[in-house]
Each structure stands twice: as C-alpha cells, then as structure tokens.
Known about the structure:
Blueprint: E1 2-3, H1 14-35, H2 39-46, H3 50-71, E2 74-81, E3 86-92, H4 106-120, E4 126-132, E5 136-143, H5 146-154, H6 167-191, E6 202-208, H7 219-228, E7 233-238, E8 244-246, E9 258-260, H8 265-275, E10 279-282, H9 285-300, E11 301-307, H10 309-330
Parallel strand pairs: 3-4, 3-6, 6-7, 7-10
Antiparallel strand pairs: 1-2, 2-11, 4-5, 8-9
Helix pairs in contact: 1-3, 3-10, 4-5, 4-9, 6-7, 7-8
Amino acid sequence: MSFGHPYLLLTLLVLPLAVALHLRAQRRAMRYAVRYTNLEVLASVAGRPQWRRWLPPALFLLALGALCVGFARPHVTSLVPRNRATVILVVDVSRSMQSDDVKPTRLGAAQAGVRTFLAHAPKNLRVALIAFAGEAQVAAPPTYDHELVRQAVEDLGLYSGYGGTAIGDALAAAVLLAKQAVSNDRSLASVSPAPAARGGPVSILFLSDGYQTRGELLPLQGAARARTAGIPVYTIALGTPNGTLDRGFGSYANGGGRVPVPPDPVTLKAIAQTTGGQFFAARSANALQSAYAKLGARLTRVPRKHEVTYEFVAIAAGLLLGAGLLSAVWSPRLP
C-alpha cells in the first residue's frame, strides 16, 4: 500500500491522545459514582461484563484510525487486464515430445497447459501459436478468437512428424510475427478517424523439451533478435533428465532400444535472461500447468494502482455507527 499524502499519517498520533482522554473521563466517572446515592443503578453498572465497557471505545478508536489513514489517500496495487496485449505461444512439436516421462506425453501435457492459458486469458488478449520442430510454422495468427487458437492446439500433433529442433529459427519466427502484429496495429491506427490506443506489449511464451539439432540461427542468436525488438521471452523446459524415446519412432528406426531425450534448461534459461523474461523448469504435467497459470497471470495482466480512500471512510462510518449503537444499548440510563 502507498499513500498520496503520507505525511498525513501523522494524524494517527491523535489515537494515543484519545485513549488518554478516555481514561481520564473514566476516572472522573468513578469519582462521581462514589458520591452518587442511587445504589440500584450503581449495582447494574457494576454487574456489566468488562468487555462491554471497552468495546464501544475500541470501535471508536478503530474508526478514528481508519479516517486518519483515509486522509493520507491510500492506494493499493492490483492486477488488471492489459490493453491490446499480444502473446506469441511457441510450442516444440519435435519427435522427442512423444516421450512419456511427462504424462500422458510431453506433447499432450503441453497441449493441456496451453488450454489452461487460454481458459484464463482475458478476451482482449491477442494470441498466436507457432509450432516448430526442424522448422517453424504459424499454426494460428495473432487473433482475439481464442477458440481458433484452441482448435490449432488440438492439431499440434499434425506438425510432429518433422524431425529436429530449431530453437533459434523458432524464436526468429515468433519475433517476425510479433513485429507484423504491431505493424498492422499501426496501419489500422493511421486510417482510423479517431485516435487509437497504443499497441499493448508483446511477449513470447516458448516451450521446448530438447537441445537444438537443426536450424540456421543458434538459440542465443534468436534471443538477440527478440532483445533488439524489446520482446521478453518466457521459456519452459519440459521433461526430465531421464526422458527417453523408442528408437523405432521415425528416423530413430535403426534398431531396438531407447535413446535419451533430456531437455536443455541451460539454453532456455539463457534465452530468458537475455531477453528479460523468466525461465521455468517443468518435470511433470502439474508443474507445467502451474507454469502456464503463472505466466498467464503475468503476461495478460499488469499491476495498476487505484485509490481506496472511500473504502476507509466507509469502514470508519460503519465502526462509528456500531460504537454509537452499542453505547446506546449497553449504557445505563440515569433517572
């Protein structure tokens, strides 16, 4: 919490003064009670529970404190949806994504994670999907139609017949797609009769499960393009170090047995650090779901401050009302 006028918090110093005045008033009331001769009323006062005696003043002090805080113009920070933001989802669909060390398979877990991301994405978020193996392909262009992206997620298996992992080229393709989306925004704004809002931030959410084996650009070369464009890349390394794949799958049909397909967290972490993003390691379907949920909140919402002065005033009014009602009910009426 922050305050528009923090120096006004000094008004809280009136609280100990109010306590001192109340205690002084109580002592004077006790001296008056000694001289008072109506024993029936005095007996009713003495028989009251002590907490009834102190609750109304305590509520009054809380109300006074709430008003003092309200005078300082308090502000709180909350997450609100970004305006016209774009997220480019990049998913590895290479053959190693068929490994079942992450249930049901790495690709199946990735599809479920993207569905979770889309389910919590605000409607004004534009989403694109790129599938890559030996080369990158746009599965869904930047769109506000999340159902279209969801259908493209279901079809990711169609791209998995390609071999190799071209991480650098996939990053370059995502950056190019992001630039095109921003460029289209500017063109539409130039022909719009009314001033258009500035394009929201663009982010890349990149998931891969292995080392680069193909492509023209090295991973950090692709990351450098994202950094130059001012686009943060949030990376997820999917899989366990002990992940394996049957040799009988695709180009591995050179005999029986299984080959290791561990992820490459070092490279993916370096990509995130280079571009100002964040790295996540997901060794299970649950961990992947959690990563997509966290990234969904971070990439689709932005912290924004708003004033809560009226809330503190309302709390103070309620406390004052409660203190007054309790005093009226519990205080004895002198004849």
